[in-house]
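Researcher: We're teaching a course module on how sequence relates to structure. For the next exercise, students receive a sequence and then see the predicted structure as tokens, so they can try to spot secondary structure elements on their own. Here is the exercise chain.
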Amino acid sequence: MTTDAIHPLRLWLWRAMVATLALVTLAAALVAHANLAPFWRSAGRIADSIDEVRPTRIGLVLGTTDRVDGRENPYFRHRIDAAARLWHAGRIATLLVSGDNRSRYYNEPVRMREALVARGVPADRIVCDFAGLRTFDSVVRAKEVFGISEVLFISQRFHVERAIYIARSHGLDARGFAADDVEPHLAVKTRVREIGARIRMWLDVHVLDTRPRHLGERIHLP
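Model: And here is the predicted structure for the students to work with:
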């Protein structure tokens, strides 16, 4: 191989390395920004104790399954406990429970409603959103289907941060109440998934112009 042939090859390899480094840096910056943005935008809007919660008409409990591998899901229990405590303390008038209802055998909103009733919340103060297939859908449907302009999200802090980011990006006055989290060794998979969920959240809001899978006619809340 001649010297003249070596030089263009080296130049091509150098350019390829620079381009790859630039793409990796850009991707890392996007991941960092998407994961920090909900923290920044929800600052000062999430309460850790009931005394910090101002009375709000609607509390939206974000859904999750009640059982994992046949065992109780602590995320579910803590969210329901938090919602019931808020209602009994008079901080919210109506609970909207939003989750996935993918089949007759899997129905997050019904499980949440049953658990809340078991904790003394009247059934007529609980409304089910059966099309909250993911957090984005739950938030946007709260505004566009249920006509909510102000909302208190109830879930674990990391989840509430993401919900508030979506809500404020869609013109909702959103605050949150942080339910108890689970023990760190049980939360590893959830926290890893949250990294990807925040990237998708950022793309949904700023790039993809995403819409909920299901909308429908306006539903009035009590």
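Model: If you want an answer key for the exercise: The chain has one domain: 40-206. The mean pLDDT is 92.
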